[in-house]
């Protein structure tokens, strides 16, 4: 099976769905990690070009760890909008990956960051538009519309209600290793920017979802919501590991 994960920024996929992707890789699935923006404002001490290059290399290291193909859309961090050139990049990514299932951040302004929202919305649009022959005719269309699962948003969100819980207890260490490939975002940067530790937030969140699931002997969970806008793909949950 072919799996496409969209992240708004380098390290977003690792934060929200890397454990699930690792489970899917272990069962033999082919993984594509598509990063929408280049993360070029993620530093207080480097130029935009410098930090973008660093974050590209970090994303590649994470993809290499899991044996995934990295798709790098190179949009401007915090200034990505639903315009023609950007929408075409998302459609092209779906055409390249030809996925059986897609993962993305939730659309609909469900956390603090507009890039997350835009990425989720464009993933939603691209999964359908990638079947339209008149768009990017130089690339073969996909032959089906894949189901779309939304990962958890950042922080408390009353509009997010996950239905599916993936046990990543065995994959937690792999998830953390992938996350720590993004060294530029560890330590001083996250403390200076937001006064928090990203590592602590990640661990607390997957423990929280494990608590919500309540399954015995499950310590860490990634949660997902199936996109319920037409077309809803019947039996999509069977694709989850």
Features:
single chain; about 240 residues; alpha/beta; Rossmann fold; 7-stranded mixed β-sheet; globular
Question: How would you summarize what this structure contains?
Answer:
The protein is an alpha/beta fold. The chain has helices at 12-26, 48-66, 84-97, 114-129, 172-180, 188-194, 198-213; strands at 2-7, 30-37, 69-75, 101-104, 148-150, 164-167, 221-226.
Unreliably modeled segments: none
Overall outline? globular
Tally of DSSP helical segments: 7
Helix content: 25-40%
Q: Looking at this structure, what is the CATH superfamily?
A: LmbE-like
CATH architectural label: 3-Layer(aba) Sandwich
> How do the strands line up in the largest sheet?
3-2-1-4-5-7-6
> What is the arithmetic mean of pLDDT?
93
CATH classification, class level: Alpha Beta
Rg, Cα atoms, Å: 17 Å
End-to-end distance: 11 Å
Write down the secondary-structure element order.
EHEHEHEHEEHHHE
């Amino acid at each position: 099976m072919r799996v496409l994960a969209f992240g708004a920024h380098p390290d977003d996929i690792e934060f929200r769905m890397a454990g699930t992707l690792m489970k899917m890789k272990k069962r033999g699935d082919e993984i594509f990690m598509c990063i929408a923006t280049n993360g070029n404002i993620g530093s207080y001490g480097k130029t935009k070009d410098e930090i973008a290059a660093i974050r590209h290399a970090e994303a590649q290291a994470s993809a290499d760890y899991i044996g995934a193909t990295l798709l790098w859309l190179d949009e401007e961090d915090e200034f990505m909008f639903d315009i023609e050139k950007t929408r075409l990049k998302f459609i092209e990514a779906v055409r390249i990956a030809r996925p059986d299932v897609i993962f993305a951040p939730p659309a609909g302004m469900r956390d603090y960051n507009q890039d997350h929202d835009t990425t989720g919305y464009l993933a939603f649009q691209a999964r359908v538009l990638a079947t339209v022959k008149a768009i990017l005719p130089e690339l073969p269309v996909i032959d089906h519309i894949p189901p779309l699962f939304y990962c958890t948003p950042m922080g408390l969100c009353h509009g997010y209600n996950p239905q599916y819980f993936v046990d990543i207890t065995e994959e937690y260490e792999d998830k953390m290793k992938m996350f720590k490939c993004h060294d530029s975002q560890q330590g001083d940067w996250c403390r200076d920017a937001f006064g928090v530790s990203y590592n602590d937030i990640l661990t607390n969140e997957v423990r929280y979802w494990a608590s919500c699931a309540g399954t015995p002997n499950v310590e860490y969970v990634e949660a997902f919501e199936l996109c319920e806008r037409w077309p809803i793909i019947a039996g999509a949950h069977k694709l989850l590991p």
